[in-house]
C-alpha cells in the first residue's frame, strides 16, 4: 500500500467548520483558520462540466475529471449513494494537501487526545489548513510531553453540509483510487454516527471496497490484486500487534523509566519484524519502507485498525441483504441507532460469522 494510502487512512472526515458557529471549546484563532480554509475551498470550486467543455483545460485534467464523473454517476446509479452536486465540482487548491491533521497521545499511553465538535462528535485529531500551523500545534503539544504525528490529508467530507468538490490533491491517486475515494466519501454522506470512528470508517471502507469491485466488473476489468490487499492486511496486523504489546507495557506496574526503555525496544522489534516480512514472504517489496523509516511514536499508530475494524462485519450484513444496497443501508442505519455497547457487540457477532 502506497504511503499516500496510509495518509488517506488518517484523513479528516468531519465538518470542522461547524465549531466556528456552535462551539466555544477551543480558541477563536483555531476556528477562524478553519472557517477561512473551508470558505477558500468553496470559493475555488468550478463545475466539472464547464472544465470538460473548455478547450483550454489541460487534456490530462479533462481525462481524469471525465473518469471521475463516470465514477460519480456509477455511485448513485449502481451503489445507491447520494445523488447531489458533490464530486461534480472541481477545486484546485494549489497545494499538495487540503489539510494537515495533528494526532497526539501522552508519552506513555495510546489514548488519543480527542477534540469534540457538534454533529461530527469527538475525533482523535485536529485539522489545519496550513502546514505551518499544524507543525506549530504539534510543537506545543510536544513541549507538554506528548507524542505527535502530523499527517497530510488529500480529501475530507463535510457529510453533505456542502457540495464537496474533487480536489487537485485527490488527483495524485491513480484512476482506481480516485473512483474508490469518491465511493468512500459519499458513503459518509449516506451514513455517519457521531463519536464512532471505527463504525463510520469501516462502513465507508466496505462501501468503497465493494463499490470498487462492482465498478471494475462493470468496466470489464480484472478483480483487485489479492496479493496487494494481503500485504496491506499483514502490515496492519504488524502495527496492531505492536500496539497491543505497548498497551500491556503502559498498563503494567513498572516505572516510567522502564516503560520508556520498553517503548524503544518495541519500536525496534516492529522494524525488525517488518524487515523479515518484507525480505521473506513479500520478496523484497519495499512499499512500506518510507513509513517504517520515519520516527515512530504512539501517535503514529493511532490511525491503524479503526478504518477496517468492522469491514468484515459489514460484508456479512451486505450478504444478508442479498446485495441490495438500499436494504444494506437500512440495516446499517438501524445498527447506528443502537447505543455504543450494543452496536459493538452486534458488529463483533457479525464479524464472527465471516
Task: Give a short synopsis of this structure.
The protein has 354 residues and is mainly alpha-helical. It is 55% helix and 9% strand.
Strand content: 5-15%
Helix-strand sequence: HHHEHHEEEEEHEEHHHHHHHH
What is the average per-residue confidence, as pLDDT, rounded to a whole number?
Answer: 90
Which secondary-structure class do the elements indicate? mainly alpha
For the secondary structure, the number of strands is 8
Give, in spatial order, the strands making up the sheet with the most strands.
1-2-8
Give unreliable regions as ranges.
1-25
Shape: globular
Description of the molecule:
This protein is mainly α. It has a domain at 3-193. It has 14 helices and eight strands. It has a three-stranded mixed beta sheet with strand order 1-2-8. A three-stranded antiparallel beta sheet has the order 6-3-7. The longest helix is centred in the C-terminal third of the chain and has 26 residues, at 226-251. The chain is globular and about 65 Å long. Mean pLDDT is 90; it is low at 1-25.
Amino acid at each position: 500500500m502506497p504511503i499516500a494510502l496510509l495518509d488517506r487512512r488518517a484523513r479528516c472526515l468531519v465538518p470542522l467548520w461547524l465549531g466556528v458557529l456552535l462551539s466555544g471549546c477551543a480558541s477563536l484563532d483555531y476556528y477562524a483558520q478553519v472557517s477561512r480554509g473551508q470558505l477558500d475551498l468553496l470559493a475555488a470550486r468550478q463545475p466539472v462540466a464547464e472544465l470538460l467543455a473548455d478547450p483550454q483545460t489541460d487534456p490530462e485534467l479533462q481525462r481524469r475529471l471525465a473518469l471521475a464523473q463516470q465514477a460519480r454517476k456509477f455511485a448513485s446509479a449502481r451503489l445507491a449513494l447520494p445523488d447531489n452536486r458533490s464530486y461534480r465540482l472541481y477545486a484546485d487548491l494549489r497545494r499538495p494537501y487540503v489539510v494537515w491533521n495533528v494526532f497526539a497521545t501522552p508519552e506513555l499511553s495510546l489514548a488519543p487526545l480527542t477534540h469534540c465538535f457538534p454533529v461530527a462528535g469527538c475525533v482523535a485529531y485536529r485539522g489545519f489548513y496550513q502546514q505551518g500551523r499544524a507543525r506549530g500545534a504539534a510543537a506545543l503539544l510536544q513541549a507538554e510531553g506528548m507524542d505527535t504525528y502530523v499527517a497530510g490529508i488529500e480529501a475530507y467530507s463535510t457529510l453533505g453540509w456542502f457540495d464537496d468538490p474533487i480536489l487537485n490533491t485527490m488527483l495524485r491517486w491513480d484512476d482506481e483510487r480516485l473512483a474508490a475515494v469518491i465511493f468512500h466519501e459519499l458513503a459518509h454522506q449516506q451514513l455517519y454516527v457521531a463519536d464512532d470512528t471505527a463504525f463510520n470508517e469501516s462502513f465507508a471502507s466496505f462501501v468503497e471496497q465493494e463499490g470498487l469491485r462492482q465498478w471494475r466488473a462493470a468496466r470489464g476489468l480484472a478483480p483487485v490484486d489479492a496479493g496487494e490487499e494481503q500485504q496491506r492486511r499483514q502490515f496492519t496486523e504488524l502495527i496492531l500487534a505492536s500496539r497491543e504489546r505497548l498497551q500491556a507495557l503502559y498498563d503494567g506496574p513498572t516505572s516510567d523509566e522502564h516503560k520508556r526503555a520498553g517503548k524503544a525496544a518495541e519500536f525496534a522489534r516492529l522494524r525488525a519484524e517488518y524487515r523479515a516480512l518484507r525480505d521473506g514472504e513479500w520478496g523484497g517489496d519495499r512499499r512500506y519502507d518510507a513509513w517504517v523509516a520515519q520516527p515512530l511514536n504512539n501517535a503514529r499508530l493511532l490511525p491503524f485498525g479503526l478504518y477496517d475494524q468492522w469491514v468484515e462485519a459489514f460484508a456479512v450484513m451486505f450478504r444478508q441483504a442479498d446485495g441490495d444496497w438500499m436494504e444494506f443501508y437500512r440495516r446499517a442505519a438501524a445498527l447506528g441507532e443502537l447505543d455504543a455497547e450494543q452496536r459493538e457487540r452486534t458488529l463483533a457477532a457479525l464479524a464472527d460469522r465471516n
